[in-house]
Write a structure and sequence with these properties.
- The structure is a single chain.
- About 25% of the residues lie in helices and about 35% in strands.
- By secondary structure, the chain is of the alpha+beta class.
- The chain has one domain: 2-Layer Sandwich (Alpha-Beta Plaits), CATH 3.30.70.330.
- The strands form 2 sheets. The chain has a 4-stranded antiparallel sheet.
- A hairpin with a 2-residue loop joins strand 4 and strand 5.
- The longest helix has 12 residues.
- The chain starts with a helix and ends with a helix.
């Protein structure tokens, strides 16, 4: 069993995720083998909020080329976490 700090890798802060914050949705990068139940428990225990739903997306790495060198970016699993209305994650409010 992994600890809650190991499941949530980092928040994803972009223009799109900042707009989703108005709908009480936060986006996190999570471990690739984490389940929705693991993610829900981790967010609730780490940030002391009530999670309504969790949606996940597995993104494959994209092909990148710099000159003749061709490579691939890393795979990532994103979790879209919807909180109960009126709740927010104070730690992330200053970043967004």
């Amino acid at each position: 069993m992994r600890s809650f700090e190991q499941i949530i890798l980092r928040p994803i802060i972009t223009e799109k995720t900042t707009d989703l914050k108005a709908s009480d949705i936060y986006v996190f990068s999570v471990l690739s083998d984490a389940t929705k139940v693991d993610i829900k428990n981790a967010v609730e225990n780490l940030f002391k909020v009530k999670v309504l739903s969790v949606n996940t997306i597995n993104s494959d790495g994209r092909r990148r080329q710099i000159g003749r060198s061709v490579g691939k970016t890393a795979k990532i699993k994103k979790a879209y976490v919807k909180l109960a209305s009126g709740q927010k994650i104070d730690m992330l409010e200053g970043m967004m």
